[in-house]
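User: Can you help me understand a structure? I only have the sequence.
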Amino acid sequence: MRNLPSLNGLRAFETAARCGSFVLAGQELGVSSAAVSLQIKSLEAHLGKKLFVRKGNRISLTDAGEVMYPKLAHAFGELSEAAQVVRSERRSRQLVISLLPALSELWFLPKVIAFRKETGVALDIRVQEDPIDFEREAIDIRLTYASALYAGYRHLPLFSDVAIAVCAPSFWSQYSDSEGTLKNVPDANLIHNNWGPSYASEPLWSDWRRETGIGDAQLSDPGLRINDLSLAISAAQQGAGVALVPSVLVENAIASGRLVSPSESVLSMKKDYVCVLPNAKVESPTVRLLLETLGQSPTRT
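Assistant: Let's start by predicting it. Here is the structure, written out as tokens:
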């Protein structure tokens, strides 16, 4: 116990391993990337092991780092839970909910309005990209896509989904075909959504074409690229083209006639949407009520 490494060094390592970057780790910790690198070098010297392979601005875990990271992430998760228990005594009727931007308006907002009316629970809702820091930001629950960034926390699947092609009725009237293959839609009118640097599993038009056998997987035109999913859906509603989007996010728009899904072909999403939370929070009555509103049974793991 007397020869424990520096807590700052351990924190720097855990954050860099989770973020995959000294720069992003520094932003999360409020220090420079050079300071993160220095703390990790000090930790490596203490342990007598290399934890990262450094190639320019890119880093990857060594074998020693891969052994150490899950245990350390779990330990910090336990510390976060301890802090959350104390905080919950102060605000037992308030929930701090963090969620991915794509889930906010189209899927989450109607559910949370109903939850608020039914329970009267005070809510602090934060729309954030991954990764978030449960402890530093006092987050009770995180709603996101996939969960690999949150080792040491409880992961509850919310739903699986498929990506579907959607467009405005007026657009489909112009480019329709009887089989619904989108063969008349120019590549220039395909709307692409880039989910950002943390993801490599968002639905792509090339994957959709390859999976369905419809059209050439190689696109002849880059089309319209938007890095916000809600905006991509709005662009489709306004007739800009056809967007490939998770079906759960456009159910209401299709039901109301603002969008149509002209093709029966779908692309399975590679990951689940998930709820991530500290283990201690699963037993909170307020959290359990929210999970039920979201269609999740708190007993599932």
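Now, to help you interpret it: Residues 63-90 form the longest helix (28 residues). The two ends are 34 Å apart (CA to CA). Let me know which part you'd like to focus on.
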